[in-house]
Design a protein that fits this description.
single chain, about 850 residues, alpha+beta, TIM Barrel, Jelly Rolls, 5 domains, eight-stranded parallel β-barrel, six-stranded antiparallel beta sheet, about 20% helix
């Protein structure tokens, strides 16, 4: 049979054709090597024709926009996006995270690009491991999603120095983010490198890749006024640079109301449906680049949480007001490994996002948004092609209606009253709207989704100890030396600024000096003004006190009584940064470290050490020796740990087995104070357990990615600044151990497979689905429901987080739930009287709440 090549077969023979950076001919040669030799000549002869055809067939998707939405390959799109930052997780986690985002109804994955991570030194680039931007984008493509790349190069993102490399500070005459030639030259060079890298891998949609949108700069409108006319000039130059990079896809600027054409201005915030002034041109779509799913958390400050209901309300309101693109920031936050997080920011980043720090589903947030996305997609046709009408339904109620014709219609019924349920009339039908909610009617008749009615299950995350380090024999320790002035080589006759001295090579800078005290041993007061964030003082090798600032008040004064010897005294102060600043104008002027130091003696004498001989040591001895690695740990003499003494500035070392199974792993550092932890040489981040929020640590557990672990012989090294006790540390596994669901007759069931009138299918003449609501419970893979902790059909009080039996309760509730669910990975219990032996309280609206244990 003769061998034939059809163009439609090429993608099977050469699956990497469209995304490869190598030439099409080289790809064909590789494929040919695996075929019979007699095919070689004919295939090579056709290679040029095949390449040209495939460029048209699998490359070159046109992405444009108009006043309604992005237009991809000629089709208007309503798009849901989620932020997942590649360096805040591991390559091994990327496929699962992206798959869960896709399952959650997302169309796009958004990421920032981290300049200081990729170019830590001028001209030296690194795209390996967690820095592998190309691999991350290709994984997005492999799972059939689009990508949005926010190149910056300034990104903020609660990332040290806003993503700018610290070496920029040393460029002569530089002014960041202004019409300043030194900054613009470096910015342009870096932006070109990133864009050309992505182009070389054919990752822009115009080349057949997944990238449909790019961002230049980040929230520049927040600082532009500080630069005056140079700010306006920089803005124009930045937009021009973006266009000249010629990616073939649109560019956006967020929080930039005057974004120059053709760059799209976009909204960031929690309530863009209420606060966004809209596109600055009728030819631009309404885009929401950061819908904050919670708030980033900082050490020592109470977090601002955000409910699934609130997120859903504002997403639907934005869509109802002709928004067409919503990006959740973050969809998965991940971990600030090493020293990457900005000032005071927790190592755990956006853990309350729809996917938590470990990649587990955060329910009900993930599921509620999934149902929202499905409901909105049912409205796509009228939203994109229909005419919008707005009508009043009451004092605080309104409807947004999109109608293409009598058959194609979608409506959004809004109740802005934050306290009252209301009943509204729409098209001669009554609809009940809970407080602060929106109902989605994809056919202008049937409620497919209400933002305040959560039908998805709630989950509870638990930490289970796998290995406790409670034996004194397993720990070894190494005391960090306290340098004196005589032991330092870096000298200055003034107090140096910390960031410019350490160059972001360490969080630590020693300030030392000698002090001659001609008197008998007396008490004096050491007064230090510090610009943040932490200070530890030692006098003659003895600990003399500590102090720290806070996220809201970084500058602080430490005053401690000290004892001075007659003669020479050695004062050593360890200044600690907890992340670099990430925002604000003139970032290059920001300062850290000591501001002033004085010693007040009892007789009233005051010594000021502002202009005085100082000695400096950048970093710790343990850091320089890399004792957190196996090779480095062998270079020093470790001592047996003395469990009765917990001294500051101590390194601790032990080994452990990896927990069995596939559950995520975390390190419980609840017994420690402040410092950093490493697993097999990989830093899992800073910890600060001793700074409390309402009496509790801001963060206790620290993520250990499975890819950091070996089966046996895992090296754990901890540097403790304070007096933590390592004998109470444990390695824990992280899992979902409880699932809970609650529904009522007023809850519309999930809309994933719902079809309405515009899909030419019959619609039941009711305000809701013909299907009854159900409690759907599902344990994580590999676990089954082992116990029903609570079940009530009737009027249970509270919700899945705090519940009790109400005045109306069926005695059959628990047996029915056990029969339906125990021993199963998932189960479904419909809200029906006959399932529970009859109606326990006729005439009363009932609900069903079931809480179950997964093991």
């Amino acid at each position: 049979m003769p061998f034939r090549v059809r163009f439609t077969d090429i993608s099977i023979l050469f699956p990497q054709f469209c995304s490869s950076a190598r030439s099409n001919t080289e790809r064909i040669r590789e494929g040919v090597k695996k075929k019979k030799k007699k095919m070689v000549r004919s295939l090579l002869f056709l290679s040029v024709l095949i390449a040209a055809s495939m460029m048209e067939k699998c490359g070159g998707v046109n992405v444009s926009y108009d006043g309604r939405s992005l237009v991809i390959d000629g089709q208007h799109k309503i798009l849901f996006s989620g932020s997942i930052h590649y360096p805040r997780s591991t390559p091994q986690m990327w496929p699962s995270l992206i798959a869960k985002a896709r399952e959650g109804g997302l169309d796009v994955i958004e990421t920032l690009v981290f300049w200081n991570l990729h170019e830590p030194k001028p001209g030296q680039f690194d795209f390996s491991g967690r820095r592998d931007l190309v691999r991350f984008i290709k994984e997005i493509q492999a799972q059939g999603l689009y990508a949005c790349v926010r190149i910056g190069p300034f990104i903020q993102g609660e990332w040290g120095y806003g993503g700018l490399p610290i070496w920029l500070h040393d460029v002569p005459g530089i002014v960041f983010r202004s019409d300043n030639e030194p900054f613009k030259n470096h910015m342009q060079q870096y932006a070109k490198i990133i864009v050309n890298l992505l182009k070389s891998e054919r990752l822009f949609a115009s080349q057949g890749g997944p990238i449909i949108l790019s961002q230049i700069e980040n929230e520049y409108g927040m600082v532009q006024k500080a630069f005056g006319e140079k700010g306006k000039a920089y803005l124009q130059w930045t937009a021009k640079l973006a266009v000249e990079l010629d990616t073939g896809v649109p560019w956006v600027m967020c929080k930039q109301d005057d974004a120059p054409d053709p760059v799209i201005n976009a909204c960031n915030g929690r309530r863009c449906g209420e606060t966004f002034a809209g596109p600055n041109s009728p030819n631009k779509p309404a885009i929401w680049t950061e819908n904050w799913t919670t708030s980033y958390e900082v050490y020592g400050k109470e977090p601002r949480l955000r409910s699934a209901e609130d997120i859903a309300f504002h997403v639907v309101l934005f869509i109802a007001k002709k928004g067409s693109y919503v990006n959740y920031y973050m969809y998965h936050g991940g971990t600030n490994f090493g020293r990457t997080g900005s000032e005071y920011v927790l190592t755990s980043y956006y853990d309350k996002a729809p996917l938590d720090e470990y990649g587990l589903l955060r329910q009900p947030k993930w599921g509620h948004l999934k149902e929202l996305h499905a409901a909105i997609k049912l409205c796509s046709r009228p939203l994109l092609s229909g005419v919008q009408m707005k009508m009043s339904l009451g004092d605080q109620q309104e409807a947004f209606v999109f109608r293409e014709n009598s058959q194609v219609c979608a409506a959004f019924l809004v109740n802005n009253d934050i306290r009252r349920n209301v009943t509204v009339q729409f098209q001669n039908i009554s609809y009940e709207l809970p407080p602060k909610s929106i109902s989605i009617l994809p056919d202008c008749k049937i409620v497919a989704f209400n933002t305040a009615k959560v039908t998805t299950q709630y989950t509870t995350r638990s930490m289970q100890p796998s290995k406790r380090f409670d034996s004194i024999e397993i720990w070894e320790e190494y005391k960090e030396s306290i340098p004196t002035f005589d032991e330092t080589s870096l000298r200055a006759n003034t107090i140096l600024e910390q960031m410019n001295t350490t160059k972001d090579t360490s969080d630590y800078l020693w300030y030392t000096f000698r002090y001659e005290h001609q008197s008998s041993k007396t008490k004096s007061v050491l007064r230090v003004e510090h610009l943040g964030h932490v200070l530890h003082a030692f006098v003659n090798g003895q600990f003399a006190g500590s102090g720290h600032g806070s996220f809201d008040q970084k500058r602080f004064i430490m005053e401690n009584t000290i004892s001075l010897n007659n003669g020479t005294n050695y004062v050593s102060l360890l200044s600690v940064t907890v992340g670099l600043p990430d925002s604000g104008p003139h970032l290059e002027r920001r300062a850290a470290g000591l501001r002033s130091l004085r010693i007040q003696r009892t007789k009233g004498y005051l010594d000021d050490f502002q202009d005085y001989p100082w000695g400096y040591q950048v970093g710790l001895v343990g850091e320089k020796l890399k004792i957190y690695t196996e090779n480095g740990a062998r270079k020093i003499q470790w001592s047996k740990h003395n469990n009765s003494t917990h001294q500051p500035l101590t390194w601790y070392k032990t080994f452990f087995y990896a927990p069995p199974g596939r559950d995520p792993v975390a390190l419980d550092l609840g017994s420690m104070g402040k410092g950093e932890a490493w697993i097999n040489g990989e830093s899992i981040g800073r910890y600060w357990v001793s700074i409390l929020t309402r009496g509790s640590p801001s963060q206790t557990w620290y993520n250990i990615p499975r890819s950091f672990l070996k089966t046996t012989g895992n090296l754990l090294v901890i540097f403790e600044e304070e007096k933590g006790n390592p004998a109470e540390i444990s390695v824990d596994t992280v899992s979902i151990t409880k699932v809970c669901g609650q529904v009522s007759k007023s809850h519309p069931p999930p809309v994933i497979s719902w079809r309405g009138q515009q899909q030419d299918e019959p619609v039941e003449k009711t305000r809701h689905h013909g299907r009854r609501p159900k409690v759907n419970l599902r344990c994580p893979p590999g676990r089954n429901i082992s116990k029903i902790l609570f079940a009530s059909f009737g009027t249970p009080s509270g919700d899945c987080q705090n519940y009790s039996v109400g005045a109306c309760h069926s005695s059959h509730s628990l047996p029915v739930a056990k029969r339906a669910c125990v021993g199963k990975n998932k189960c479904s219990i419909p809200l029906r009287n006959d399932r529970f032996g009859g109606d326990p309280c006729p005439g009363i609206s009932k609900s069903l709440l079931v809480d179950a244990l997964c093991t």
